[in-house]
Design a protein that fits this description.
By secondary structure, the protein is α/β, with parallel strands linked by helices. The strands form two sheets. Strands 5-4-1-6-7-8 form a six-stranded parallel beta sheet. A two-stranded antiparallel sheet has the order 2-3. The longest helix is centred in the first third of the chain and has 12 residues. The N and C termini lie far apart (36 Å). 38% of the residues are buried.
Length: 185
């Protein structure tokens, strides 16, 4: 987190904000990946995703929290990964990410405070300035970190998303129940 904050009278804590999250929106390059884009001579694009980030997303969806992707680039790999994880809301090639954000907010009848967003670069600032729980990955640009209430310890593509999903699940008080399911026979 971005330093320790002591809740003041009338100020909502980061944990309380996480408890109210109904939608987590993710950027891709630099958040779900480490930001590397590998291209071969045949025009194929490769991205590397962290398996624990994916598992955290699946747990969040299982707990009833909607997850969406908004990214400025377009890649078939993103469609494939989203499908594997059960993410049905995918907006690619979004130059104005707030347009996709507004569609999601309206579709699910959510207020800004019920939405969390994880970003890494200045294109994410307009959404970060709106949401109730703005999160920056550890290696995000300084300009973005200014808008974050939560800065992950892990870098993008290296467990940052899992850090956030676990935090939300614990804040909602459902982490233990999900954890205990792995011990059922």
């Amino acid at each position: 987190m971005k330093g320790k904050r002591t809740p003041q009278k009338g100020v909502v804590s980061i944990r309380e904000k996480a408890r109210g999250v109904k939608l987590l929106i993710l950027d891709v390059d630099g958040v779900l990946t480490d930001g590397s884009i590998i291209l071969d001579n045949e025009g194929n694009e490769y991205k590397s995703f962290h398996v624990r980030d994916g598992h955290g997303i699946k747990m969040l969806i299982k707990a009833g929290v909607q997850v969406a992707i908004i990214t400025g680039r377009h890649s078939k790999v993103v469609d494939r990964r989203a499908h594997e994880l059960g993410i049905t809301e995918v907006f690619q090639k979004c130059f104005l990410k707030t347009a996709a954000y507004n569609i999601l907010r309206e579709k699910y009848s959510l207020s800004d405070k019920e939405i969390a967003y994880i970003g890494d670069d200045i294109v994410d600032v307009p959404i970060m300035a709106k949401v109730g729980l703005p999160v920056a990955v550890a290696d995000a640009v300084a300009e973005l970190r200014q808008y974050a209430l939560f800065v992950t310890k892990n870098r993008g593509g290296r467990g940052a998303v899992r850090e956030v999903t676990d935090f939300i699940l614990k804040a909602k008080g459902i982490w233990e129940g999900l954890f205990d399911e792995y011990f059922k026979v």
